[in-house]
Specification:
Blueprint lengths: L1 H6 L15 E2 L22 E2 L2 E2 L14 E13 L6 E6 L5 E7 L3 E9 L9 E4 L25 E7 L4 E7 L10 E7 L8 E11 L4 H11 L6 E4 L4 E2 L8 E2 L2 E5 L4 E8 L6 E5 L4 E6 L2 E8 L2 E3 L4 E7 L8 E8 L13 E6 L41 E7 L7 E3 L12 H6 L11 E4 L5 E8 L5 E5 L4 E8 L16 E2 L1 E4 L3 E8 L4 E7 L2 H5 L3 E6 L10 H17 L10
Bound molecules: 2-acetamido-2-deoxy-beta-D-glucopyranose (8 copies).
Length: 573
């Protein structure tokens, strides 16, 4: 096996264009045409064949009968997205990796091959925000739903596109997502606002010239390091504008006056909260994560790690200038050690881009969420409970030595070689406290949870397998006698901010059997154990799991981990 591994290890890819100048974004993204009907047009985006934006995808199973099949290969690469070369890991040689396209109701089959033959990293791929309705085993979380996939092997993830909109896939093994193992997911369906053209994904990343694996020990001992740069859709410059030593290229997006463009923002950073804007243009926001919302207009949008927004921007500023800055601005209120300020792309009218001289919108540096602006288009009410009985999980950090994060007094430490799903199918009921397991055994019950922190650090909280309702989100200590919980169509999504020295009150229903992780989406914090897992409807799980797939991957992993003496130095997720 080893000779085969070495044979592929010389593969490298360079992302930045070898020529100086600007990267031109392709104008028309080739969205795959829906096979069974014509979808919608620029002026009828709320329609979708036999369905529409009024169909509730959480209750209405839609089945096109179409299967979309993809092959993705992970390799160790050398990249220079800002003109500075470093090692990284990529999907099919590019960062971001290929976008997965499907239509609402399709079945998506993705074959993932681990060819990380230089780094000898295991892997698992998580389909962020995808509900995995009764398909928990395809959630792709190392130590939870599978063992890591070894180098030289492939595995297949199969899931139904029960939702539609914009999301992303990323590695859920170690810090690999922030080594470059991620890409977009676009599920075509209706939308609450019209637009002419779809420009596809727009990733916002922080980036350094050392890898996250190299930086991890300093993150653990001294706290989050300051990163050197950031990328907009995988590219940026490095250095000051006008300085001859500046390297790299900026993303440049061509606008035609009068056309409206859909863009799918993703915060894929390891530890940066962004404010995004395009000078002098207004955005219409029409989806938050995979949930369509009543459209609202804004000039600057705040986006936490793991969150997504679908925006429409109309090219209506050609009389103001030819070139405009597109800005991704790190919010220092979220992290003292954020990346630099020169993270910008260009929107241009005319034949080719030039250097903009436009001024950015005013904004307040803050670590807030868009919650107050978000009204889900399909209205839902949360059943009320005995609000004084809410389950509480508190966030804390150990004082000395290494930074470890506690959620409800537990720092998660799970074993790559013993995924929770295997414990469930093996009928193991004795859990260790650092498994951080909470059982939710009753079907179709509401779960209410308060996550709170007294520390001055905000956290993006992500739940797998569900969209959760945001009943309250605020600063200070949660007090059930003074805080009013919003139960009438509150925002629901898969990632929301726990404010600094504040609380987040979440609710969801136990309608999806499986083992689901809940964690802080700051990469360092996931690795430092800031996570809980829910075993939901345990008695129903074995019947939806392939134990042979589970065991096959685990047997190979145990052998591989032993052969190469691979040490687990993180939480396991
Ligand atoms: C989720 O799966 C269950 C069980 O197969 C099924 O009854 C339900 O219709 C599915 N929901 C959706 C929205 O597809
Ligand atoms: C990714 O690369 C594999 C070969 O390693 C190829 O078969 C596949 O078509 C590529 N996938 C995409 C989506 O480009
Ligand atoms: C993954 O690869 C990186 C880069 O070679 C290395 O630093 C890291 O230790 C590896 N991680 C694991 C868990 O093997
Ligand atoms: C960002 O990159 C993705 C994948 O490489 C591409 O499909 C998309 O069109 C790009 N987005 C923009 C706005 O250029
Ligand atoms: C974080 O930022 C502070 C203030 O700029 C600086 O003193 C400190 O060295 C930084 N920490 C790291 C780990 O980079
Ligand atoms: C463009 O936006 C800036 C910042 O908001 C503003 O000061 C300026 O007046 C705008 N220019 C025009 C021509 O609208
Ligand atoms: C968190 O820990 C407290 C105290 O041990 C316990 O009462 C509570 O039920 C736990 N919360 C959850 C969600 O498990
Ligand atoms: C687990 O328990 C179920 C129900 O009692 C039984 O059918 C199954 O064989 C057990 N599995 C193992 C691995 O012991």
């Amino acid at each position: 096996m080893i000779s085969r591994l070495l044979a592929t290890s010389s593969f490298t890819a360079t992302l930045a264009s070898a020529l100086p100048g600007l990267v031109h974004a392709p104008h028309s993204s080739a969205l795959l045409a829906r096979s069974s009907c014509s979808g919608n047009t620029a002026s009828t985006r709320s329609q979708w064949c036999d369905y529409s934006i009024d169909t509730d995808y959480t209750t209405e199973p839609v089945d096109t009968g179409v299967t979309r099949e993809y092959w993705l290969e992970l390799t160790d690469v050398t990249v220079s997205p800002d003109g500075v070369s470093r090692s990284a890991m990529a999907v099919n040689g590019s960062i971001p990796g290929p976008t997965i396209f499907a239509d609402w109701g399709d079945t998506v089959v993705v074959h993932v091959t681990n060819s990380l033959s230089t780094s000898l990293n295991g892997t698992s791929i998580h389909w962020h925000g995808i509900r995995q309705n009764y398909t928990n085993q395809n959630d792709g979380v190392a130590s939870i739903t599978q063992c890591p996939l070894v180098v030289g092997e492939s595995t297949t993830y199969t899931w139904k596109a029960t939702q539609y909109g914009s999301s992303w896939y990323h590695s859920h093994f170690s810090l690999q997502a922030w080594e470059g193992v991620f890409g977009g997911i676009i599920i075509n369906g209706p939308s609450t606002a019209n637009y002419d053209e779809d420009l596809g994904m727009l990733f916002l990343n922080d980036w350094d010239h050392q890898t996250v694996d190299e930086l991890y020990s300093s993150a653990e001992t001294s706290g989050p390091p300051t990163l050197a740069n950031g990328l907009i859709n995988g590219t940026n410059v490095y250095g000051e504008d006008g300085d001859s030593s500046q390297t790299g290229t900026r993303l440049a997006v061509s606008f035609t006056s009068g056309t409206s463009y859909r863009m799918r923002l993703v915060n894929a950073a390891v530890d940066t909260h962004w404010r995004f804007s395009i000078d002098n243009h207004t955005m219409t926001v029409m989806a938050a994560d995979l949930v369509p919302i009543v459209p609202y207009e804004t000039t600057v949008i705040t986006i936490g790690m793991g969150q997504r927004y679908d925006i429409v921007v109309t090219a209506d500023q050609a009389d103001v200038a030819d070139n405009f800055w597109m800005r991704a601005i790190p919010q220092s209120a979220c992290s003292d050690n954020d990346s630099t300020e020169n993270i910008k792309g260009i929107v241009y009218y005319g034949d080719s881009p030039g250097t903009p001289s436009t001024t950015g919108y005013d904004f307040k540096d803050a670590c807030d969420d868009e919650t107050a602006n978000i009204t889900p288009y399909i209205s839902k009410t949360v059943s009320s409970a005995q609000w004084n009985d809410l389950e509480t999980a508190s966030v804390s950090r150990n004082s000395a030595g290494l930074f470890k994060w506690y959620l409800n007094s537990t720092t998660m430490l799970v074993d790559w070689a013993k995924p929770t799903l295997e414990m469930v199918t093996d009928n193991i009921t004795e859990y260790e406290s650092d498994d951080a397991i909470i059982e939710l055994n009753e079907a179709n019950q509401w779960v209410y949870m308060v996550v709170q922190t007294t520390l001055q650090v905000p956290h993006p909280i992500h739940l797998h397998g569900h969209d959760f309702f945001i009943l309250a989100q605020g600063s200070g200590t949660y007090d059930s006698s003074t805080v009013t919980l919003e139960t009438d169509n509150p925002p629901r999504r898969d990632t929301a901010m726990l404010p600094s020295q504040g609380y987040l009150v979440m609710a969801w229903e136990t309608d999806n059997p499986g083992v689901w992780l809940m964690h802080c989406h700051i990469g360092w914090h996931t690795s430092e154990g800031f996570a809980l897992q829910f075993i939901e409807r345990k008695s129903e799980i074995a019947s939806i799991v392939s134990t042979s797939t589970l065991e096959d991957i685990c047997t190979k992993w145990e052998e591989f981990q032993g052969d190469y003496s691979i040490e687990q130095e993180d939480s396991g997720v």
